[in-house]
Amino acid sequence: MKLSLKKTLFAAASGLAAVAMTGGAVAFCGFYVAKADTKLFNKASKVAIMRDGDRTVLTMSNDYQGELKEFAMVVPVPVVLEEGQIHVTDNAIIDHLDAYTSPRLVEYFDEDPCTMADEIMVTASRAPKAAMEAKRERGDDALGVTVEAEYTVGEYDIQILSAKESGGLAAWLRMNGYKLPDGADQTLGSYIKQGTKFFVAKINIDEQAKTGLKYLRPLQIAFESRKFMLPIRLGTLNADGKQELFVFALTRNGRVETTNYRTVKLPTGSTVPTYVKDEFGEFYKAMFAEQVDRESQNAVFLEYAWDMNWCDPCAADPMSSDELRELGVYWTDGGDSVMPMTRRRPIPPGGAQDVFVTRLHVSYDAAHFPEDLMFKTTGERENFQGRYVMRHPYKGEAKCDAAKEYRAGLPKRYEEEAQSLANLTGWDIDDIRVKMKESGQSFPPPAKDKWWENIWGKKDKKG
Amino acid sequence: MTQRAFDIAPLDFLAIVATALSTQWAMSTVFAIRFEAKSALITALSLTLLLRANEVWPLILAAFIAIAAKFLIRARGKHVFNPANIGIVAVTLLSGAAWTTPGQWGTAVWLAAVIAGAGFFVAYRASRLDVPLIFLGVFAAMIFARAVWLGDPLSIPMHRLQNGALILFAFFMISDPKTTPDSALLRALFAAGTAALSYIFIYHFYRADGVFYALALACLVRPLIELTDHARRYQWGDPPARNFQPSTSATPAE
Description:
The complex is a heterodimer. By secondary structure, chain A is of the alpha+beta class. In chain A, about 20% of the residues lie in helices and about 25% in strands. In chain A, helix 2 (about 165-175) crosses helix 3 and helix 8 (about 400-425) packs across helix 9. By secondary structure, chain B is mainly α. Chain B is about 60% helix and about 5% strand.
């Protein structure tokens, strides 16, 4: 036992116990848009939740980039899990779900104004990459802690713990090399009194080597519980700034929302300057931060809500039936013998699924999110997506009257784009104007309205 | 601009108001009593604020059930259920087509204050201010006790108490003078009992909208506890201070 190692209990940022710890370099999570790679959302995690009745499948993805042997996560779970209820899946599925649901930038190219009409081209943005970090080690003892079960699943060694009191559990975790943040005892105690078990995972180095992968694959757990929630409290104990969490909920009924925090739609549909294409990551991050502030930092944001049964037009590259099934959507693939399904609508040809996907994004800390996220599935099936529009002006030759009008209207349109970008992100409008000019969207600064001109007219000022 | 993910559509609101008023009018005609718009409007307001649906029919159904239940489900000369409450409980239990959104009002203190302020006014005019205060007091005591037992920081129960939907429920729904007992003591018992049931629904059955089920259940047993209630029946328009006049013999539905 190398207790000298800087051990860090990473807590399942998975939204679950995120006890992302001190020490250790913070894992970097890149976000690639177009050709620019951008650091976005550090300390972020992604969790997919299949929820149908009490049935729940959690897929917890982490982009842990540190020493694998130092990885560990602790997740409060409602029940003792059998080996078959734990599974390891492929990163690609979560990444696909992330990309499929992420806010996107849409490009329109203005046509020759002399022939009119707009043509549409679409660039789906890449999703922000979430990252999580982790570390730890182990030991062994009682302290009122019962190791209910131990399994090796994929590259993970897993223990299911139950405990009688927080002191014992905290001591056990510390003895086993976990570094717990201040206040962990109290929070663990609260979970224990609510009958919660603890799912502890660390890396089995041998098994990990066999995978031949340099990263850790997402862990999945399946269980039944009336509680529809994600425990985030352990993760907020670190006063080390905010954490980002992306929740992808998959249900049969409709949109998922939080019941103890407001769920707010991300602003969508705005037309923004074309240069945003090259810094879409920065744009998204700044806009999100700005909206978080406007909502007093205690709202959960709806970024995407889509009825996959009603997919017209389908966003590029929708989730396949197999992928959804892997994430716990047990009713795909022509029905399930255990639970008869009632389809609300006929499935159109082309692989649409009887699944409603909700993407929620939350930036949380203890001050603004004191309690765990509690969810509810609603019957709401309205589609929603975070979508931003770029309109490239027509640059070719055009000599008709319509073209004159079109060109005359461009400065006004550019100014509106600048203002909407400033409004969304809180960026300085003058900086935006400069960047627009550099990228070929130049316009004279808007003339100030002279209110008196409306009274006597512009030319009669002296009359 | 960000918007709440659960906006109120003007058409939904109109449909609810129209259904509530027309049902009230039709039932009043059938039962030959004076048409009283005020309580139907309060019911419509509660439904508008608390109930959501994809389509308009569950809202219309809820409004209809809410008002019709006043006339059709009666005990000891009073209607049994709180109108908006039974409308919500009926449609959310019967189908997945309607739902409540307990989180949509958020926890902003100012919003809670405004709602409570408006609620105070409504409740005071209807002389039933004790009900929301006792309900909130008992509920608060229980969730604070829970936090202390769990060792949770007090920010958790504080956060829960600021929930706008809870405040709305307390001041606009449970305070309805026609479906609370008329004697002060029984009223306190009723409010406290609803708070305790709410706690059980929310913390043991994980029903975020437990307050609605709690109230429906409390209303169901209310006629029993009212067997000992000899206080004067509440009439719409009774000012709070004049609540101890001699009891009247017959009480029209509204």
